[in-house]
């Protein structure tokens, strides 16, 4: 992150530009120097030719002397020459500016130099200006971005595809990742909050009704005129109490599961044990309605010794809830059958009843927390809409699945698949 | 509305029309949907409801007539063929009803073949893990035609998962299997997708199988009939109001 912040994109464009401009000016100055040298050389040649021409016109014999003087670079006659010229005012320390030719050359050189330097300064200033403006724009953009983040709006980068055009891609990538991360965290928080809120609302709602029912039972009991009436209300109180108790148990289970207080502890457990425990839980209820519960494991050879990696207690609870549902909504004297099948990776338990069945539109609903079916019989009977939800949670937590299908004749088949 | 970060797949006003004039068929007709990372979504509908066409466009196998498909925030409907196949290989795993295994290659070779095509290094431990999860360890060296339908589909699932795609698209994965095997394959598919953190979109006409999904989208005549967006926990408390009386 810091790495990207230190090296945003503008350096990539602006610094090479400044470099190019500088190199261009250095080349320009060099060109100027070379042309000056060239002017000087031309001038010297002209001077020499002029002198040679003038001297040769008067002394044709001096050709040889002039040629050797032109070729002599050691300056053997330099002192004599200086001495002669000095008589006519050409002194050793004569300034270049005293010479009109060089003066004009110098003038041209300086004006050119000034012009070039001026241009250079202007261009560089422009570069730096755009650079700092760029920087300011970037800071402003980042400001706007962070302001949005602070107000929990994480749509900036995604909404504006041309956002931060001056930043390089990896910087933008990092920003996008940051944005995603922030958004995810915020959402997780919100979801967590929502879940807790819904759970609290649901639970308080669930508790309110039976408590008020219990309350009215009690008050009627207190106002009862006769002994028999009082006993009647007392027994209703007991019934309400029992309902409340089972509801509270269910709610405690749910809230513990929701808040992950329950950790399922898978261990090698015999499937027959789990099923036995589950059946035992609702055996009483089934007996009351004269409903037969049958386990059909004819399809599985090693049914008695079949062992699965499951949490014994909670898996039994999950299956018991489904059985409870089957018994509750089946007519007296009917059958509830558990068919066992061993597949490649799963054990398939089909819990088939001959009850009222479930309408197809409710298949997805019945496993929801506090959902209660729309069938009149369901509406009449007791229940908190917790059991199947809990079952699904427990089974899915252990990589199993549960779903419902219509039975061939009448009723429903709950299919539970548990991993082998 | 704030952007939802964990949306991995999204369509906007997606349409696919075939034919013209009187023969115009609106296979997919203005569909907007969002699928979140790690979600298991089932798309159900009768045959001809446009679910396969929709899945093909979600998987960049087909170009929409109009509309957009965003995969990981990128509009794949506007990509060129080269980029598309790259995205398909990198991000999407496909499972079809007909398994589509290569008959001359054994199970293991079928599973690793797509990785080879993409030049990815072979994470052998990962593949072994998948093979074991899907119960194919003993069948690794078998040719597809010696396997049962369920085993072949498990092999196809392994192949889809092996490239570690972020999303798996399955078109009637249990269509050729009997109920029990189909249920088992679906359970395996769900468990594997969950294990490897992959998003799963399954097309099925089987509403029972759809129950395994976190969410079910129902299609009819190329349009969304219902989108079970609510999570299993958010059920209106009001619905339970009327039963607990004395």
Describe this protein's structure.
The complex is a heterodimer of chains A (420) and B (246). By secondary structure, chain A is of the alpha+beta class. Chain A is built from 12 helices and 7 strands. Chain A has helices at 2-6, 10-58, 63-71, 78-87, 100-150, 156-159, 169-222, 227-258, 271-288, 312-328, 376-380, 387-397, and strands spanning 267-270, 292-296, 307-310, 335-342, 346-352, 401-406, 412-419. Chain A has a 5-stranded mixed sheet. In chain A, a hairpin with a 5-residue loop joins strand 6 (401-406) and strand 7. In chain A, helix 7 runs antiparallel to helix 8, helix 9 packs parallel to helix 10 and helix 10 packs antiparallel against helix 12 (387-397). The longest helix of chain A has 54 residues, at 169-222. Chain A is rod-shaped and about 160 Å long. Chain A starts with a helix and ends with a strand. Residues 1-9 of chain A have low confidence and may be disordered. Chain B is α/β, with parallel strands linked by helices and 246 residues long. In chain B, 30% of the residues lie in helices and 26% in strands. Chain B contains 7 helices and 10 strands. Chain B has helices at 51-58, 81-91, 107-117, 124-133, 149-162, 179-195, 207-210; strands at residues 7-18, 25-36, 40-44, 66-71, 74-75, 92-96, 167-171, 199-204, 215-220, 223-227. Chain B has a 6-stranded mixed sheet with strand order 6-7-8-3-9-10, sandwiched between helices. Chain B has a 4-stranded antiparallel sheet with strand order 2-1-4-5, with helices on one face. In chain B, helix 3 packs parallel to helix 5, helix 4 packs antiparallel against helix 5 and helix 5 packs parallel to helix 6. The termini of chain B are far apart. Residues 230-246 of chain B have low confidence and may be disordered.
């Amino acid at each position: 992150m810091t790495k990207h912040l230190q090296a945003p994109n503008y350096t990539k464009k602006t610094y090479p530009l400044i470099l190019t401009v500088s190199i261009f000016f250095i080349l320009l100055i060099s060109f100027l120097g070379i042309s000056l040298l060239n002017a000087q050389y031309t001038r010297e040649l002209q001077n020499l030719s002029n002198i040679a021409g003038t001297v040769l016109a008067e002394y044709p014999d001096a050709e040889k002397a002039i040629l050797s003087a032109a070729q002599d670079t050691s300056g053997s006659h330099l002192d004599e020459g200086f001495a002669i010229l000095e008589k006519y005012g050409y002194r050793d320390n004569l300034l270049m500016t005293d010479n009109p030719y060089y003066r004009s050359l110098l003038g041209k050189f300086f004006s050119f130099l000034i012009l070039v330097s001026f241009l250079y300064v202007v261009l560089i200033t422009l570069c730096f200006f755009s650079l700092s403006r760029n920087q300011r724009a970037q800071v402003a953009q980042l400001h706007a971005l962070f302001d949005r983040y602070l107000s929990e709006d994480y749509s900036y980068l995604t909404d504006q595809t041309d956002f931060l055009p001056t930043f390089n891609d990896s910087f933008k990538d990092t920003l996008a990742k940051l944005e995603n991360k922030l958004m995810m965290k915020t959402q997780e928080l919100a979801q967590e909050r929502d879940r807790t809120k819904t759970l609290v609302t649901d639970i308080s709602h669930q508790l309110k009704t039976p408590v008020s029912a219990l309350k009215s039972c009690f008050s009627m009991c207190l106002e009862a005129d006769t002994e028999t009436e009082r006993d009647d209300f007392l027994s209703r109180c007991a019934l309400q109490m029992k309902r409340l108790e089972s509801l509270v148990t269910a709610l405690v289970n749910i809230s513990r599961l929701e808040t992950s207080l329950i950790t399922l502890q898978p261990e090698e457990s015999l499937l027959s044990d789990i099923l036995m425990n589950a059946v035992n839980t609702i055996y009483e209820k089934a007996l009351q309605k004269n409903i037969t519960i049958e386990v059909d494991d004819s399809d599985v050879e090693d049914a008695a010794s079949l062992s699965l990696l499951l949490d014994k207690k909670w898996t039994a609870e999950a299956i018991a809830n489904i059985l409870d549902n089957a018994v509750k909504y089946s007519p007296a004297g009917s059958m509830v059958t558990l068919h066992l099948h061993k597949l490649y990776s799963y054990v398939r338990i089909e819990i088939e009843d001959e009850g009222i069945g479930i309408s197809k539109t409710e298949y997805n609903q019945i496993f929801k927390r506090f959902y209660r079916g729309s069938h009149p019989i369901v509406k009449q009977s007791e229940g908190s809409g917790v059991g199947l939800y809990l079952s699904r949670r427990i089974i899915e937590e252990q990589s199993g699945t549960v779903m419902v299908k219509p039975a061939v004749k009448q009723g429903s088949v709950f299919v539970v698949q548990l991993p082998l | 509305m704030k952007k939802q970060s964990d949306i991995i797949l999204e369509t906007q006003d997606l349409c696919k029309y075939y034919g013209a004039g009187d023969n115009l068929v609106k296979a997919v007709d203005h569909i907007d949907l969002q699928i979140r990372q790690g979600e298991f979504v089932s798309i159900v509908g009768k045959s001809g409801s446009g679910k396969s066409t929709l899945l093909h466009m979600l998987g960049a196998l087909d170009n929409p007539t109009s509309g957009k498909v965003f995969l990981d925030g990128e509009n794949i409907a506007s990509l060129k063929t080269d980029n598309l196949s790259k995205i398909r290989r990198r991000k999407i795993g496909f499972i079809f009803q007909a398994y589509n295994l290569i008959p001359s290659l054994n199970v293991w070779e079928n599973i690793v073949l797509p990785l080879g095509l993409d030049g990815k290094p072979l994470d052998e431990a990962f593949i072994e893990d998948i093979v074991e999860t899907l119960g194919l360890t003993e069948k690794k060296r078998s040719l597809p035609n010696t396997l049962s339908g369920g085993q072949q589909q498990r092999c196809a699932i392994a192949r889809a998962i092996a490239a570690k795609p972020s999303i798996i698209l399955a078109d009637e994965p249990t269509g050729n299997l009997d109920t029990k095997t189909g249920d088992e394959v679906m359970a395996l598919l769900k468990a594997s997708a969950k294990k490897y953190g992959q998003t799963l979109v399954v097309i099925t006409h089987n509403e029972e199988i759809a129950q395994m999904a976190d969410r079910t989208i129902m299609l009819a005549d190329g349009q969304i009939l219902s989108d079970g967006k609510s999570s299993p926990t958010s059920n209106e408390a009001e619905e339970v109001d009327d039963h607990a009386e004395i």
